[in-house]
Amino acid sequence: MTGSAESAVTMQAVRFHEFGEPADVLVMEAVSLPQPDAGRIRVRVIACGLNPADWALCRGLFAGKMPRGVGLDVCGIVDAIGEDVQDVAVGDTVLGAADYAGCTSAGAAEQAILKHWTLVPAGLSPENAAAIPLSAETAFRSIESLEVRHGHTVLIHGAGTTVGFAAVQLALLKGARVIATAGTTHSAKLAELGARVTAYGDGIVERVMALADGPVDLVLDTAPPSNVLPELVEIAGGDPKRVLTITDFVAANELGVRHTFSEGHPERWDMLEEFAKLAAEGKLFVPIAEVFPLRAWRKAMEISLSGHARGKLILKPDLRNARLDQTYAE
Ligand SMILES: NC(=O)c1ccc[n+]([C@@H]2O[C@H](COP(=O)([O-])OP(=O)(O)OC[C@H]3O[C@@H](n4cnc5c(N)ncnc54)[C@H](OP(=O)(O)O)[C@@H]3O)[C@@H](O)[C@H]2O)c1
């Protein structure tokens, strides 16, 4: 254990003992129940959202002590509280981010230690709550970094990703005019929200410029890396400083495009309560692709790794599904 103490009681958790391809290194196994350190809480996991970041962790992003868990987004019921925590009580339902670096397991487990949390407001389902944290935090931080303001015309490239979908809503809330590129899965919903939507792929420059009546003020790239940054710079009138990518750091450095790690902006977990409030009010929604029992984690991982998740993939430890139980049980 790197941070928290452990008990003799065990639980099921998905984790890795060495770096490598997620399908090769991840296993579900019985692990000691972690105890929350000061400033942490433990929850009984109701729902856990998977992210591409989980697979990056397996491949060595943020190297550290092993073993470690995956599943960064969590909704659960508080069942233990570390010292110095005063804003929640045992029995409260919270959403938040797992302490993936300070603990030997994370959210894809029966119980999880959280580093950041807020209460789940009335009206927000556990699945929708678990879909929020990482996507909303990344989208918010990126929109803030770009300094999106009322009246700006902003392109969200890859708005069919969960981060992009959240970014469209946050940019619209700022009063921006939003153009979105997306596949067919979420294009109708994005248009309903108020974005002007077009497909990504060949001809993107002409299509976006036609929708915007010329270059846009700002571009946020949330799409999986696909060699599109030169076209996005063109859409931003040729100015790479008006483009921010959260995915293609190599090309960004070559082109002078801004990226997550060039910004030096701290993570915005302080906004979790606001994200939850917006979600409960129906103003911030992260689409869910599919919900699986925890023991079907491998199927959920395969879909995410395909690059076409089409929404958040959610794991639920208590979900019973006879078909999936038979097909995916380890
Ligand atoms: N830098 C950071 O801090 C940070 C944080 C979180 C995530 N990320 C990265 O941001 C990206 C998005 O994360 P996510 O969790 O939102 O991903 P995700 O929802 O799993 O992304 C999958 C979606 O990407 C879309 N897509 C696939 N190929 C595309 C292409 N060539 N162009 C545009 N869209 C494409 C597809 O939507 P359609 O149905 O529209 O095709 C697909 O459903 C990932 O690469 C992730 O690693 C970075």
Task: Tell me what you see in this structure.
The chain has 330 residues and is of the alpha/beta class. It folds into 2 domains: 6-131 and 287-328, Quinone Oxidoreductase, Chain A, domain 1, CATH 3.90.180.10; 134-262, NAD(P)-binding Rossmann-like Domain (Rossmann fold, 3-Layer(aba) Sandwich), CATH 3.40.50. The protein contains 12 helices and 15 strands. The protein has helices spanning 22-25, 52-58, 126-130, 133-145, 162-173, 184-193, 204-212, 229-235, 249-255, 272-280, 297-305, 322-328; strands at 6-16, 26-34, 41-50, 68-69, 73-81, 93-98, 111-119, 153-157, 177-181, 196-198, 218-221, 243-245, 258-259, 288-293, 312-316. Strand 14 (288-293), helix 11 (297-305) and strand 15 form a beta-alpha-beta unit. Helix 4 (133-145) packs across helix 5 (162-173) and helix 7 runs parallel beside helix 8. The chain is globular. The model has no long low-confidence stretch (mean pLDDT 94). NADP nicotinamide-adenine-dinucleotide phosphate is lined by residues 51-53, 134-135, 138, 158, 160-163, 182-183, 185, 200, 222-224, 226, 246-247, 260, 304, 307-310.
